[in-house]
Amino acid sequence: MVKKRLIFTLLYNDGSFMLSRNFRLQRAGNIEWLRSNYDFKNIAFSIDELIILDVSRNERNLVRFCDYIKAIAEECFIPVAAGGGITSHDHAKTILYSGADKLVINTALFKAPSFVKELVGIYGSQCIIASIDVKKKMDVFEIYIDNGSNSTRLSCSEYIENIINLGIGEIYLNSMDNDGTGHGYQFDILDKFDSSVTLPLIFAGGAGNWHHLLEGLQHNMIDAVATANLFNFIGKGFPNARKELINKGIGLARWETTFYKELKGSLTGSKKDS
Known about the structure:
- It is built from ten helices and twelve strands.
- It has an eight-stranded parallel β-barrel with strand order 1-4-5-6-7-10-11-12, surrounded by four helices.
- The protein has helices at 31-37, 40-43, 62-73, 89-97, 107-111, 113-123, 156-164, 210-218, 237-247, 258-273; strands at residues 5-13, 16-21, 24-29, 49-54, 80-83, 102-105, 128-137, 140-145, 150-155, 170-175, 201-204, 224-227.
- Helix 8 packs across helix 9 (237-247).
- It is an alpha/beta fold.
- The protein has one domain (5-273): Aldolase class I (TIM Barrel, Alpha-Beta Barrel), CATH 3.20.20.
- The longest helix is centred in the last third of the chain and has 16 residues, at 258-273.
């Protein structure tokens, strides 16, 4: 049985890590702030994957972004995916050489599908995550590109049907309406999702606490949940969330660390008491 996954997304903009609410950015802090609030050596056992996205609104500085990827990847021993404005083979290669295991592609899915297909041919489908930003208009979920600033005027179902043919390995589906609200995931997006799509689905946009993560992971169409909420999961937020999710029977991977030995003991104790 394939394990469910818990994913942390970091939003990077011109040397800082950001909070996002409906795609409007607010600075949280630099890499030293991140290190002081998130001990990646420890939270690496609480999340299954880390995604780092360059959401810079002005001209991107690839070298600086990749320095941040390298610094973070060296501190945590989990898969790292990264992306943001990837438009060339050199851009993709530089990100991978900086320590990323996967590439996250968004706008190029729409503007340069042949380029995405080339990336799949070079690195394999398992290396390519299709990032899809969705916004509700009336009863239609439209796909947006360019950091959520432009609509493709394609519905979610139409768009996914198109990109499946590119050979991508998984989908990162993000709700622009719920982004950063902490109100929970926008599950009605999935009503428009083609049930024949078998690619792993990462669901994002709206998680503010572990209850929201639980609701997402309990959905049979969702393989992984992601949150970019820096403040709600600060400190021991992720270890505590993972503990609650495992207590609720979610099939997350378990590692033989002190944390999981303690968790196993608490679960055994509670069974004896019942």
